[in-house]
Amino acid sequence: MTQDPVEPQQPTFDGPPLSLEEELAAARAEPEPGPSIETVNESLKDGLNRCPKCGSTDVRLRGSTGMLVCLFCRNEWQEARVEEEFGLGEGIDQLEGTVIASGAEDIAADAADQVTFKCEACGAEVVVDTAHALNARCHWCRHTLNVNQQIPNGAVPDAVLPFRLTKEEAVEKIRAFASKRRLFAHKRFKREFVPENVLGVYLPYLVIDARAETQYWGKGEVQTRRWTEKQGDKQVTYYAADVYQVQRQVAFTVDDLTVEASSERADFGTKNTNNIINTILPFDTKNAVKWNASYLVGFTSEKRDLNVEALTPVLEDQGLSIGRSQVRGSLGRFDRGVRWEQEKIEIGGSRWVSMYLPVWLYSYRQESNGLLHYIAVNARTGETMGSIPVSQPKLLLAAFTVGTFLEGIAGAILVASA
Amino acid sequence: MTIEIIQALVHVASGVVRAASDDDGGGVLWLLAIGPAGGAATYWAIYRYYRNTDKSHEFERDTIIEAQPVQGGEDRVDHISRTRDSGIKGDNGGDYRKRVQRVR
Ligand SMILES: [Zn+2]
Ligand SMILES: [Zn+2]
């Protein structure tokens, strides 16, 4: 099987060939900026964010309903779902190029994180550090000032999915998760574990609709014969098989593929536990609403620092995986398996929306190795996943005990059969 | 947690039976390897249950995907007349995330 991989069989017809001039012009051309979706919430004035009924700015999210509630007059309301507002679920199979919603535009690296507001109520100047929060209270008149404009530093996303699970519910989930894993937990973790220390965090994601076509080339084997031969006093099984060059292709659309837009979270290396937060996906992103910073009051948030360009390879990678899972069902006749050797993806069109998604987060830093462990709860679905520091001595003792027990059985079998 | 240990033990025990029924010299060695193998399996089963290092979001399954019919073909290019391998080498048909050579 050292034979060279067969040249991929390209699709035979790909439109009329371009002339040399056309090809050169195409190569030189700047990438066309795709059409954009304007998601700025015009109804919100700079900074102040008032109850539509009484004009108070004391507005909070009521977790149980996902609605905004005015703490002054108890009026409850909700921003429009972005799904309908910007037609996000529609026309994925017609997408062309890269469509970027205004909140998903490139982060300006040089723009300062500090944004100064003039409080419209009393005239004081209030600074909001957009790297960590998108709202602040005026220390003179207690009005809440919100970053509602899509300022050029890319801090404000297009949409936000409000918290639904209450803190109490999240604490219960986290407690249940950890208590199932007490026996081998690190002693210090058990002592210091306080699930009430959970924090509500909005984490930044890019939510992608895309149209793609994938193609795969490889080898597949079909068994033609199976027999046994006697060698000395033991039976050896042999196989004969036909080898096929296999090609598959599939076109698909994907709706609301969700990828981490913070470089810290997007790194799934073995040196960290970021995979935990990824595991609590998916979210019901269809219910995300138009940006209104009042949804963030009482929660912390993390700023997006990855742009569409940086995440395009992630989209291609996940698209290739999706295509592979789609063609899997067509490989049934290759009962000895299939080995893919080459693959190709073409993204016909994609649409990117920047979104804040709600997570209840319990974190614990393991002192011995500096590893940050999380227990994360999806604040919409309640899905919970975590990483608990294990006590190596206890784990080794358990492994040794089971090993010794099995070795005892093995010894007994040997003695019995001798 | 106990479930994971039991799974690991069942896995190892089936190995014991298979090794014991294989009635040649290799069988004894296999049998003696059961202890260390079972210990290692226990270690990894518990470790995974606590740390979940192997978990991630299954976007291939948990995202709304609408696919058109799969197309393609296959050509017989070779025949293996005699091998002891029960499957193709490097089988990755079900390993969706393992990237192979990218054609551009
Ligand atoms: Zn009000
Ligand atoms: Zn003020």
How does this model look, in words?
The complex is a heterodimer of chains A (418) and B (104). Chain A is built from eight helices and 18 strands. Chain A has helices at 20-28, 82-85, 167-179, 187-192, 263-266, 275-279, 308-327, 392-417; strands at 36-37, 47-48, 59-62, 67-70, 76-77, 97-101, 114-118, 125-129, 135-137, 144-146, 159-160, 199-231, 234-260, 289-290, 300-301, 338-365, 372-378, 384-386. In chain A, strands 1, 6, 11, 12, 13, 14, 15, 16, 17 and 18 form a ten-stranded mixed beta sheet that branches. In chain A, strand 7 (114-118) and strand 8 (125-129) form a beta hairpin. The longest helix of chain A is centred in the last third of the chain and has 26 residues, at 392-417. Chain A is flat and about 95 Å long. Chain B is 49% helix and 18% strand. Chain B has helices at residues 2-21, 25-51, 59-62, and strands spanning 64-67, 71-83, 101-102. In chain B, helix 1 (2-21) packs antiparallel against helix 2. Chains A and B meet through strand 12, strand 13, helix 6, helix 7 and strand 16 of A and helix 1, helix 2, helix 3, strand 1 and strand 2 of B. Strand 13 of chain A pairs antiparallel with strand 1 of chain B, so a sheet runs across the interface. Bound molecules: zinc ion (2 copies). Chain A: The chain crosses the membrane at residues 395-416. Chain A: This is TFIIB-type zinc ribbon-containing protein. Chain A: It comes from Nocardioides humi.
- Briefly note the structural class of the backbone of chain B: alpha+beta
Total of DSSP H or I helical runs spanning 4+ residues of chain A: 8
Rg measurement of chain B, Å? 20 Å
Q: Note the run of SSEs of chain B as H and E.
A: HHHEEE
Helical percentage of chain B? 40-55%
Quaternary state of this entry equals: heterodimer
Major sheet of chain B = none
Question: What is the terminal-to-terminal distance of chain A?
Answer: 43 Å
What is the mean predicted local confidence, pLDDT of chain A?
Answer: 83
Q: What's the story with the biggest beta sheet of chain A?
A: 10 strands, mixed
